[in-house]
Amino acid sequence: MTPTIAACIWAIGVIAWLAIRIPRRRKAKRTKVVADQVTLTERTTLGLCIVGLVIVPIIYLTSDILDYANYNFSPWVALLGTVAMAVFVALFYLSHKQLDKNWSVTLEVREDHKLVDHGLYAHIRHPMYTSFWLWGIAQALLIPNWVAGFSGVVAVAILYFSRIGNEEAMMRQEFGKDYDAYCKRTKRLVPKLF
Ligand code: SAH
Fold first, then answer.
1. What is the helix (H) or strand (E) element at residue 36, kind and residue range?
2. pLDDT tens across 10-58, in order?
3. Does 103 contact ligand 1 (Cβ within 6 A)?
4. Of 77, 84, 142, 147, whose CB is crowded by the most CB atoms within 10 A?
């Protein structure tokens, strides 16, 4: 494992994100939105994620302005990052597939919205957010730079903590007791833990 291979693995993760997300966004447009909780904070934190997870690492890879924050590369750490990136792609793909027509990039309730509680959702309520945390962690392990390595996980943390309460409140408003019962039998991000 070399820094160049680690950077390529990071880039493959980003390409996989686009390859999964672009067709899903197109498909989602066909199902009407009946309610939403889209605030300025929500839009800003989503934009921040693109900056932290994609734009800052691209600046690092294509210029030398962040080189002051470089540290020594470790092949073993990068190998762990590769595993985290692979699990990100798998969870991201599966959560999209299982949410299907109920997925939105932001906080929205769709026409005929169903509460998904099978597959990954039988174990945790937010597998897609687990995948985003893993993407941020993978970036930190693959890119040996304090700024470009950690910008992703910081952006994911901001999005996650500002969104999670609102998302669960929206789901509770839509599904009432069913959502309460679902919350009782599942954790948020890691099965049986938290
Ligand atoms: N938080 C989930 C989904 C992220 S996508 C995850 O991390 O996997 C965000 C949208 O998914 C929200 O707007 C909400 O409408 C929808 N959603 C979240 N959990 C859901 C569930 N269990 N069933 C159906 N839709 C869900």
1. strand 33-36
2. 999 999 999 999 999 999 999 999 999 889 999 999 999 999 999 999 9
3. yes
4. 142
Task: Specify the residue with its C-alpha closest to ligand 1, atom 13.
Answer: 107
Asked whether residue 109 is domain-assigned, the answer is no
Residues 109, 34: contact at Cβ < 8 Å? yes
Per-residue pLDDT reduced to its tens digit, 164-191:
999 999 999 999 999 999 999 999 999 9
Q: Which pTM value belongs to this model?
A: 0.96
Residue 12, ligand 1, Cβ within 6 A: no
Please indicate whether residue 129, judged by its CB atom, sits closer than 6 Å to ligand 1.
yes
Q: Which residue range is the domain that position 65 belongs to? A: 3-30+38-104+115-185
Q: Write the CATH number for 121.
A: 1.20.120.1630
